[in-house]
Amino acid sequence: MTAMDLKLIKMVSDHYWIKSDSVVEKLSYKGRTFYNKYEKVQKPLNQQIINQHIKGEITVAHSLINARNKVENIVIDYNGRDPQRFYHRAQLLLREEGYINFTAFETKTPGHLHLYIHKGHTDLQEAYQLAKLISAKLASKMPKQWRVFPTQDLPLEYNILNIPQEVYAKERGASWSKHM
Q: What is the pLDDT of residue 121?
């Protein structure tokens, strides 16, 4: 994974989250209790920390929501058994919906994908609605084996994702999109 590959997803880089072996914080949210194992580090995310994560020395996550409640990416976290089939179906659906910039990344767990849909500066409430809509359309075509971020079902501290390990596939404004 190169620095250019990670720049595709425009991560919030003014802070990052590092995973610890024990519970860092206990949160109550909408009648549920969450035990957070990620600790927020108020330092800029730099290439040295990302390299340590890729080597497996530490586990680092990035926030999807910035300080101004804006979202750059809507992310589908696929945890199923057939990533190739999922990506193919998701790719067709996203093209049909008019999304032409998205990137799929492999995670540390084999077969799991993070599909980043590059939306640009989007208000948080609009991002929640778009995420629900995309998830509902995917659910009509295949069994649900994913979560979509950002989500209102989790506290803001849980709208984070581990930094991906490797690029799976990219889609960048294909030439056929001008005919839509």
A: 86
Query: pTM higher than 0.85 for the full model?
Result: yes
| Alpha helices, DSSP H, located in the chain | 3-7, 47-55, 83-97, 124-139
The token pair at 132 is 């629900």
Instruction: Could you list the beta-strand ranges (E) of the chain.
Output: 16-19, 25-29, 32-36, 38-41, 60-63, 70-78, 101-106, 113-123, 146-149, 160-162, 166-172
Superfamily assignment of 3-179 in CATH? Answer: HP0184-like (3.90.920.20)
What type of residue sits at position 52?
A: Q
Q: Is residue 26 a contact partner of residue 33, using CB atoms and an 8 Å limit?
A: yes
Return the number of other C-beta atoms located less than 10 Å from residue 56's C-beta.
9
SS3 104: strand
User: Which tens digits make up the pLDDT trace of 16-70?
Assistant: 999 999 998 898 898 899 999 999 999 999 989 988 998 889 999 999 999 899 9
